[in-house]
Specification:
The structure is a homodimer. Chain A is α+β, with helices and mostly antiparallel strands. Helix content of chain A is about 40%, strand content about 20%. At the A-B interface, strand 5, helix 5 and strand 6 of A face strand 5, helix 5 and strand 6 of B. The structure holds a DNA duplex (25 and 25 nucleotides).
Chain lengths: ~150, ~150
DNA sequence: CTACCTGCAAACTGTTTGCAAACAA
DNA sequence: TTGTTTGCAAACAGTTTGCAGGTAG
């Protein structure tokens, strides 16, 4: 179901600002940082405040419309419609590739077997080095990289 | 090799502050947040400044003596002597369990096969729900959790 | 009408930096 | 002695909050 419909259904108002933010997240097929969303929004409509954007993103996350994950210092957002999946982002050139939901199944199972802990990877964004950048002789040794994920409420 | 020796070998001074920080990291068998390290240090010696602690931790990471990973909003630190390994931390009670190095091997392989990207998981800290807390009826559905890792330079 | 939303400005949090004084070697 | 290291205070960046005025329904 579309985010706009979800908003209205749950009794939230569909303001122009919210509509714009929802549109941007839907139009982007990748993941966006909060900063990118702020820039896109403000390039289309002057005067939309970043706190409005953060508040809208928080709301959309609570409604299950978007995933929010942390990548390094930033949060990144991704619409939740295409279901569970993961990303790898190249450290060097920033290129990103999607990966299937099942990627972490072996890890989930192994963690459960070895420790009894239950973990679930809903939307993980990890950093790596893409084939092209590797061919250029870059190494990922010494690169800091992080992966994070967040449950969809 | 011990952190103190590494420091001296590379021409860095072994000050009381640095010795104290190294001791605390070694004494702790788990992982510590920057804040915990600051608290421990300051409870033993008054007047040690947090910027000194951050600078020392940064240095120790550069020397390969400690790992630094992000867990949510904080960095956490762990001495690097026991080699590669990972952790799961319970969302609810904070209990933590160590996991073997090889945990993410299937993921590393799958990412490489599917995307050509090269990723390496040196020291991942993830959140989950421990058996006891699960038995208490807590669910991890709806919990935000993150895993992050950092390469050891 | 009137809650809900927004813009603004200011607060916040964890981390980082610049600089003069202190100190290890 | 002397260049590294420290403590202090202030900067920083991204995110969050309080509040008065604005607007969707």
């Amino acid at each position: 179901m579309s985010c706009s419909v979800t908003l209205k259904q749950k009794g939230f108002r569909l303001t122009p600002q919210r509509r714009l933010i929802v549109d941007i997240i839907h139009e982007s097929h990748g993941h966006l940082t909060a900063e990118e969303i702020i820039d896109y929004v403000q390039s289309r409509v002057e005067g939309v405040n970043k706190s409005t954007i953060y508040r809208t993103l928080e709301l959309l996350e609570e409604l299950g419309c978007v995933y929010r994950s942390r990548l390094g210092d930033h949060f990144i957002y991704h619409h939740a419609e295409e279901g569970r999946h993961h990303h790898v982002v190249c450290h060097s050139c920033g290129k990103s590739v999607d990966l299937d939901d099942d990627l972490f199944a072996p890890v989930e199972q192994a963690v459960e077997e070895r420790s009894g802990f239950h973990v679930g990877f809903t939307h993980v964004v990890m950093r790596g080095l893409c084939p092209e950048c590797r061919a250029k002789g870059l190494h990922d040794h010494g690169w800091a990289f992080g992966i994070e994920s967040l449950h969809h409420h």
